[in-house]
Amino acid sequence: MGRIVSMVFVVAAMVVSGATSAFAGPGSGNGGSTGGGYSVTAISFSGDAAPRSGGAVSAGVPATCWWEPAQLYLFDTSPIDMTDPDELESWYLNELPKHTAGSFTMGRVAYGDLSLWRSVLDKMRAGVKITAYQPSCRQDAPQCALVGFAGTALPPGIGGPCGMNVAIGFFPTGNPPAPRIAPADLAEAARDEMNIPLPQVDRNPKVTALSGATLVGLPTWFWVTDPTSVGGTTGNRTIRAEVAGVWAEVVASTGGLSLSSPAGGQRCGPGQALTHYARGVTESSACTVSFRASSVGYPDGFPVDASTSWSATWTGSGNTGGTLTPLQRGTVVVVPVAEVQTLVTSAG
Question: Is residue 64 included in any domain, yes or no?
């Protein structure tokens, strides 16, 4: 059997309208069935973790499915001129039955009624620039989102590649409907764009006479200088991404601040990590570390790792959702620790 297009025995979509979306377009990848040739170029972000206070941000998200120029073949596998309306009509009348085991009725089911073709071909003869396109998709795409333009979505493997029962569509040349993306891919992009600051910390005490050192065995208070680095009191950061009617919202959650050093550490909830040292504030409400030894072996002081770990979940268009790879943030602060010895004497 000769080649036609990528789908067999599927319903055609005869469309001569539709504009590309401002959010998507051709990329610089490999194209083909992997979808590497198309990517979303601008995504609208919102939420407290949106980059640059929200708005459209350039980010590469692989297309799930897209329209690409089609090619029809004679039964001897010779391609026809897709810009010639007479060749297209001749192919439909004389070649299509050969590709469908001689059943012209089956060919009409597969590619639509001739009257639909002629309405397009007449426009081409009148000078309207129209191109035949076929749907394509990534090999791992669960379902072709081009259903929004024509046809009905089918489970993968039914109908044809992409789970799409659309064989061919006619659109203005160079202006097919925009590539579409999956909510899961948009969620990955949103996660990568989340604005979660590094946990910069301050501390108390800083003994002036000891070059700002703290003391062995003395609870040293630590707190983050930017509350958003631990998600405020709730420990959450949220971002929503939307493009061409597809959306995904990601919630990142942290249990708080983790401190570790060669001489001691602590794990603290978000509320504790936000508590500054002040008179009258209870030690139990703060994030404190009692260092077990002096930092005499460390010229500048103990390296204290301050880190946050964020789980990430998402929800999106079409009742989709799931979990994402956790996020990590961390900084290192140097803390000198001194040991003070006292001499106790008795009088008498």
Answer: yes
